[in-house]
Amino acid sequence: MNTAPDTSSPTPDRPRGKWIPLTAICLGTFMLLVDVSIVNVALPQMASDLHSSFTSLQWVVDMYALVLAALLMVVGALGDRLGHRKLYLFGLVVFALASLACGLAPNAGTLIAARAAQGVGGAAMLTSTTSLLNAAYQGRDRGTAFGIWGAVSGGAAAVGPVLGGLLTDEINWRAIFFVNLPIAAAALYMTVRHLKDDRGRPTGRLDYAGAVTFTVFSGALVYGLIESADKGWGSSTVLGSLALAVVALLAFALVELRSGNPLLDLGLLRNRSFVGLTAAALLLNAAAFAHLTYTSIWLQSVLALSPIQAGLVCCPLALAAFVVAGNSARLFGRAAPQIPIGLGLILIGAGVLLMTLVSAGSSWTAVLPGLIVSGVGVGMATPIMMSAALATVPRERVGMASGVVNTGRQLGYALGIAVLGTVFANRIQDYVTVNGHLADPHGAASALSGGRAQAVLASVPADKAAAVHQLVHASFAAGLDRVYLIAGGTGIVAGLIVLALVRRGEPASWERAAPAEPVVTAEASPAH
């Protein structure tokens, strides 16, 4: 008979293995966050290698966030039924296989499909982490575990762009996906050996109709917004997609009203504080992070920075957020939570508006003040946002509320990429058409917004090179100016919504704050 001791979970008798479950969960979290920020700095090289359009670039970034947003609520409910350990293992396997497919992708369509599969795996992992940590640790160890987990998330946000730039520079963009394979393998091994199995429990019939209608709504909305950049707002494809989104949203509301076990209890929307904080979560990601995709294209395609240099330029946002978030309890511990959240969002907006200083003659230093200011705002707004939202709902709806807020954060990023990308492409198109005097202004504008500015410059005769060089810089400045105006205004509006809607409550309970799942964005939020 085998009498070997059970090593499925840590105990005080086995201190050496106590933190292995935390390591397994942190590896998965790190992989998720690094992967998104890695993609951001590799976009121009992907566009050149795969000969992809601007719309394809948007989908490479957006598909992941969109699938996450669509699946978070329903996958969280599945975790309660099947067990969070099983769901986490499933997510690791799917994410690893999808990363392999991304790295081997022969064209943009395959890459986009593989990114969608990554989103499925990411949703399964993301919804499991909090429950797994809660089950693995108690008392002071639990607080330590969540603190380390949050620090790893913040570190990933800062390391991601630099690591992505390094891999892209020294190997190629495919390496940013292949690096996930050994990380996933290590996390998988430790999870199987050391994470406690939870059997799950039946919690009523799963709301399949709600899951389907919400997925159709979010997918159709983002699809219509992204395709409008290429096909125009009057296109039957765009109008049909947006109409489908409206119908699906109405269907979702009807389904949730009639469901005995809804994904979203619409009664929560009568709580103005919860609505304000959920709107803030959605708008924060759109304001603070979505514009970085187009900033990175400008840095590499127009200013000819390398991927690692572009990653370093964007780091001040993550680093400022990390420093401020780490001192949030000391700085804002006595304030009602809506104060740091609302003022942080306003700072995010102000910082992005500062980035409108970018002009045709600007260097990369023009965006630094805005990145730092918006990073300070992120560090103020994000640490307490989830726990503040959960404090506004009944205890029996805390899990649902957490899923709604996290869904809002991911959907906000997806919508931000779609809306700002359309604005960016259309503004460049208009500028080139009016000022360029080129034989094919539409083709040139498409190449510019798709990250192929150097190809445009190389294709013109020598006597026109100087004029086209000026046109490239000026058109990008015009496109970014419009992007920053909209993103900055969004941040300020979000802050005002929080200050107006969220009722004044007790000072933020930082020590007891319920941790939130990490935000998967181009520059993920460093604190939770």
Give a verbal description of the structure.
- Its main location: membrane.
- This is MFS transporter.
- It is a multi-pass membrane protein.
- The chain crosses the membrane at residues 20-43, 63-80, 87-106, 112-133, 145-167, 173-192, 204-226, 232-254, 274-294, 306-327, 339-360, 366-390, 411-428, 483-502.
- This protein has three domains: 18-202, MFS general substrate transporter like domains (Growth Hormone, Chain: A, Up-down Bundle), CATH 1.20.1250.20; 207-260; 266-513, Up-down Bundle (Growth Hormone, Chain: A), CATH 1.20.1250.20.
- 73% of the residues lie in helices and 0% in strands.
- It has 21 helices and no strands.
- The chain starts with 19 loop residues before the first helix and ends in a 27-residue tail after the last helix.
- The model is unreliable at 1-14 and 506-528 (pLDDT under 50).
Short description:
The chain is mostly helical and 528 residues long. It is built from 21 helices and no strands.
Low-confidence stretches are 1-14, 506-528
In what range is the share of β-strand residues?
under 5%
Number of domains: 3
Radius of gyration: 23 Å
Q: Mind telling me which CATH architecture of the largest domain this is?
A: Up-down Bundle
Can you say what the CATH homologous superfamily of the largest domain is? MFS general substrate transporter like domains
Number of strands: 0
**Helices and strands, in N-to-C order?**
HHHHHHHHHHHHHHHHHHHHH
Total helices: the number is: 21
The CATH C-level class name of the largest domain: Mainly Alpha
CATH topology of the largest domain: Growth Hormone, Chain: A
What's the mean pLDDT score? 80
Q: What class do helices, strands and sheet pairing give?
A: mainly alpha
Relative helix content: over 70%
| C-alpha geometry | globular
